[in-house]
Amino acid sequence: MDDSTFNRINEGLDSFSPLIPEVVLDFCFTKAGLSSDDPKLKKLVSLVAQKLITDVATSAYQYHKIAQRASLKEKKAPKEKKLTLTLTDVENALKEAGVSIARPAYFL
Question: For this UniProt entry, which segments traverse the membrane (predicted)?
Answer without folding.
Answer: none
